Amino acid sequence: MDSAVRGVSVALMGIDGAGKTTLLNHLGRALDELGFECVDTSRKAAIRSARSDGGFPARSLERLWLESWRSLLGGGHADGSPVDSAIPLEFTDRTEVASGWIVDRLPASIAGVRRSGPLASASTELTMDQIIRAEVVEPVLARGAVTLADGFGFSTATKNIRIAREIPADATSDDALDQFETFFRTAYSMPLLQPDIGFLLDVEPRRSYEWRMRQDGRLGAGEDLWLAGRRGADAYMALQTAVAAKLRAAAVDWGWNVLQIDGRPQRETAAHAVEVLTKDTAVQRLIEHRVDVK
Question: What secondary structure does DSSP assign to 99-152, as a single string?
Fold first, then answer.
């Protein structure tokens, strides 16, 4: 595609278990059928891409990703040992950019997590998103391709702030959390981080919990209030319900497309999303350009 024609960035946002990865795959196939070059720039895929390319920002993203997990644990301990020791200090060729192996290494219970941990983790992930957008996404857009991301960092930041609120007040006050929440909302509103097309998968937490348990049989380390001493379905519902309301409000302000995930077959939701995507003016511009150059 003509390098003078800018591509389109697409991002999905939703609570844990909303079906973002499944929808991303549907959108990718639809765009492939239209003849577009599609690149997965979701965080894990972006880190893998940077690692394969070498040079900047590979090492920075590796370190930041591991540190986002280490800081999330916020000084917690189990049986007298610091939990963050479960997170390796360095990537190796065998290190997989996925959370499953990290969850496997963590204890069933944790105590002593401090508010600064989840907050620092959110800040670290914001830094990662800024680098990924500038160094991974932008070069793809510059050559006229479409980028797809199955997450948006505002969701994680919002979730981490909520987890921190459930931890007893310490040196990080409620007022400080309020200010950081405003900061993250402002940061992710910047054009640098906003996608050209955004989709919010709006799902009732009880439904997403059931899907998550059927899919994985367990929750991830940051998907309920485990870090605040509460685990299971009720803790998941409490956290995800609060996060869902924040995501809904942000999506409306940003003009994102809201997809109601209400139990209909996933293929129907995907078909609707594909229709919205292909009718978007940014994608139409690329389609028209492809016709013109032919």
Answer: SHHHHHHS-S--B---THHHHHHHHHHHHHHHHHIIIIIHHHHHTT-EEEES--
107-151 pLDDT, tens digit each = 888 999 999 999 999 999 999 999 999 999 999 999 999 999 999
Distances (CA, A) of 36 to 32, 45, 90, 177, 268: 5, 19, 36, 42, 22
Instruction: Looking at the chain, list the stretches that DSSP marks H as alpha helix, in order from N- to C-terminal side.
Output: 20-33, 43-53, 58-72, 100-105, 116-132, 138-142, 153-166, 174-189, 205-216, 233-254, 266-279, 281-293
Q: What is the DSSP letter of 97?
A: S
What's the whole-model pTM score? 0.93
Using an 8 Å Cβ cutoff, are 282 and 196 in contact? yes
122 and 156 in contact (C-beta within 8 Å)? yes
